[in-house]
Amino acid sequence: MLFGWEKCAILLLSSLRLRTGQLTTQLNLPMSETFSVIPHKIIGVAVIWNNQGQILIDRRRAEGLMGGLWEFPGGKVEPGETVEECIQREIEEELGIEIAVGDRLITIDHDYTKFRVTLTVHHCRHLTGEPQPIECDEIRWVNLEQLDHYTFPEANIQIINALRQSS
Ligand SMILES: Nc1nc2c([nH]c(=O)n2[C@H]2C[C@H](O)[C@@H](COP(=O)(O)OP(=O)(O)OP(=O)(O)O)O2)c(=O)[nH]1
Ligand SMILES: [Mg+2]
């Protein structure tokens, strides 16, 4: 049996679609009633350019979430970190290269079925090191026209459109 205030709280939280970072817990409510907390991932994303006007893309691991899709490298912003710091760190961790993080291209909020993402995308310049597929299945340097030949997550349509408009 739910009390009035409990029902109000549930309605309020549901209507706000409670956003809680990486939290994926389901709250167990009385009488086996449950509601989902939608995870919200805050992601820094790099569009890394080389001197030939190409961009670095990577293929996500086949077995994971969005497995086998291509993406622009990046990852979750950690507490106390700026998006620029996150991008620099993720690229070192995922690809083993040094980059210069430049201007922001676009910020995208996108709802997937089970979670939402905020992707903050920066233009970056490759400085040193040969990119290695440390945390992905494959990496490739491609030009803007070739991006059409690769399958990206849904949110990336907006990144690719922004890239085409900015060039
Ligand atoms: N890096 C990157 N992530 C993207 C792009 N497009 C897109 O929808 N995403 C999503 C996929 C992931 O849910 C999230 C990136 O998070 P992530 O790669 O650090 O982590 P993950 O969710 O795959 O895995 P986990 O650490 O939660 O286990 O952003 C993109 O172009 N680049
Ligand atoms: Mg990542």
From TrEMBL:
Q: Which domain of life is it from?
A: Bacteria
Q: Which GO terms describe its biological process?
A: DNA repair; DNA replication
Catalysis performed (reactions): 8-oxo-dGTP + H2O = 8-oxo-dGMP + diphosphate + H(+)
- Show the InterPro entries listed in the entry: Mutator_MutT (IPR003561), MutT-like (IPR047127), MutY_C (IPR029119), Nudix_hydrolase (IPR020476), NUDIX_hydrolase-like_dom_sf (IPR015797), NUDIX_hydrolase_CS (IPR020084), NUDIX_hydrolase_dom (IPR000086)
| Positions of Mg(2+) binding | 74, 94
**EC category:** hydrolase
Ranges for domain Nudix hydrolase come to 38-163
What the entry lists under Pfam families is as follows: NUDIX_4
Summarize where 8-oxo-dGTP binds, as residue positions.
60, 71-74, 156
Q: Which Gene3D superfamilies does the record cross-reference, listed alphabetically? A: Nucleoside Triphosphate Pyrophosphohydrolase (3.90.79.10)
The family database entries (PROSITE patterns) matched by this protein are listed as: NUDIX, NUDIX_BOX
The entry's keywords:
DNA damage, DNA repair, DNA replication, Hydrolase, Magnesium, Metal-binding, Mutator protein
- Its EC number is 3.6.1.55
An MF annotation (GO) of this entry: 8-oxo-7,8-dihydroguanosine triphosphate pyrophosphatase activity
Question: Do the record's keywords include Zinc-finger?
Answer: no
Give the required cofactors: Mg(2+)
Q: Does the keyword DNA damage apply?
A: yes
Q: Which family does it belong to?
A: Belongs to the Nudix hydrolase family.
The entry's protein name is 8-oxo-dGTP diphosphatase
Q: Which organism is it from?
A: Crinalium epipsammum PCC 9333
